[in-house]
Specification:
By secondary structure, this protein is mostly helical. The protein contains 13 helices and no strands. Among the domains are: 130 residues, no CATH class; 47 residues, no CATH class. The structure holds heme C (5 copies).
Length: 268
């Protein structure tokens, strides 16, 4: 009978093994994406050493987020403010606001000892993920898209899953979240707050041709030569109030927003 199988079949087990490894890799990446724990961290709300309230400071007092959180440099360090920021108002002998309150005991003590307040971290991307705040804030993504309504929270809680699928959902459709840069830290912003005439005038002032703006509203056949015609076109398409779709698609086009979807952008 001799050799029933041709010689190359000796390699078959190896080929199968390699194929299995590749399929397994593919599957585990797929599984990693689809089964990334979407909701497990949502709601995480650790007790902080000082009962600091965003509702009071960012809500009622209206302090801008950047008064305490600065993302100037692409740092991977915590951007929670130093004690000095609190002393501006609560420091004994400085602002003195409520400095006798038991709730501020640790803050006053930190003023004496110089030790930092041991804030408990709420959000943490794994080490193998690259994330940069300013790359988002400078492109019109608000804190509220990723952290929820912090300005209404007594205690900060994890509001969004911040999983890979969540990052990619926005990267595929950024227009759902883009807004003018001056509203990035205004968590109560609604597109309907914008005056349509101001919005389109702003685009025209940036030397974007009216015709180009019109095609974003109404497709290739849409035409406009000036602000008035743009406003008419926008009203027929979107209705009386400015909508997120309207703002988002314009900003995406004219700012050339293209969030990355390739693995190496987030896993370097
Ligand atoms: C007066 C200073 C101050 C202001 C203003 C402020 N924060 Fe904070 N923020 C803090 C402090 C202190 C912490 C750490 C303690 C805590 O989690 O409450 C913190 C924590 C956070 C965290 C959680 C950090 C982590 O550990 O993951 C987020 C998110 C956050 N702030 C967002 C905001 C946003 C959005 C705004 C604007 C609406 C804002 N903050 C305004 C002081 C401030
Ligand atoms: C711009 C001024 C300002 C800054 C900066 C500031 N606070 Fe306050 N804080 C206030 C005011 C005003 C109140 C409300 C006082 C009241 O209820 O009458 C307050 C209230 C508080 C309270 C509640 C006190 C109580 O007895 O009810 C705590 C705790 C507190 N702040 C912690 C902090 C911490 C921690 C920081 C730094 C991360 C900070 N604050 C930064 C102005 C400030
Ligand atoms: C595109 C989503 C996104 C936006 C927009 C965003 N954050 Fe974050 N934030 C994150 C992620 C993801 C982390 C965890 C980062 C890490 O561990 O490196 C985080 C962490 C933080 C932390 C914890 C400290 C740190 O840097 O690790 C603070 C404070 C914070 N964000 C505040 C803000 C404020 C204030 C704004 C708006 C001015 C904002 N974030 C906008 C996604 C976002
Ligand atoms: C709500 C929308 C949104 C979410 C959520 C979001 N991104 Fe982005 N991301 C953007 C936009 C918009 C840009 C800017 C694209 C541009 O400049 O063309 C961007 C850019 C980036 C970039 C390229 C810029 C840079 O820093 O090199 C990286 C990397 C990135 N995002 C990582 C992440 C990660 C990781 C997460 C999840 C933890 C995340 N993003 C969540 C909207 C989002
Ligand atoms: C926009 C940013 C972004 C892109 C693009 C991206 N990832 Fe991720 N990836 C993340 C984040 C964020 C996590 C962490 C998820 C978590 O903590 O739940 C993650 C986690 C993972 C994990 C671990 C899964 C787990 O649950 O532990 C693997 C594996 C992975 N990514 C592979 C990939 C591959 C392969 C690609 C390209 C097809 C890719 N990623 C593209 C942001 C990204």
């Amino acid at each position: 009978m001799g050799n029933f199988f041709p010689r190359w079949t000796n390699w078959l087990p190896l080929k199968v093994a390699i194929a299995v490894v590749f399929i397994a890799l593919g599957v585990s990446v797929g599984v990693a994406y689809y089964f990334t724990p979407k909701y497990t961290r949502v709601g995480y709300e650790p007790t902080q050493p000082v009962p600091f309230s965003h509702k009071i400071h960012a809500g009622q007092l209206g302090l801008d987020c950047r008064y305490c959180h600065s993302f100037g440099e692409a740092s991977s360090h915590s951007n929670v403010p130093t004690n000095q920021t609190c002393f501006n108002c609560h420091g004994p002998g400085k602002g003195n606001i409520k400095s006798a309150s038991p709730k501020l005991e640790l803050v006053v003590k930190a003023h004496e000892t110089g030790e930092s307040i041991p804030w408990v971290k709420v959000h943490k991307a794994p080490d193998y993920v690259y994330f940069n705040h300013s790359a988002h804030l400078n492109r019109g993504i608000s804190c509220v898209s990723c952290h929820g309504k912090i300005n209404e929270m007594e205690v900060v809680r994890h509001d969004q899953p911040q999983s890979m699928g969540w990052c990619l959902d926005c990267h595929r459709n950024p227009e759902k979240n883009l807004r003018p840069l001056e509203h990035v830290t205004n968590l109560n912003f609604q597109p309907a707050d914008l005056k349509r005439a101001d919005f389109y005038k702003g685009l025209l002032d940036k030397k974007i041709p009216a015709g180009e703006i019109a095609t974003v509203i109404g497709g290739e056949s849409a035409k406009a030569d000036d602000l008035d015609q743009l406003l008419k076109l926008a009203e027929t398409t979107y209705g009386k109030e400015v909508t997120q779709a309207e703002v988002g698609t314009q900003l995406k086009k004219h700012w050339q927003i293209q969030p990355p979807e390739n693995c190496t952008a987030c896993h370097r």
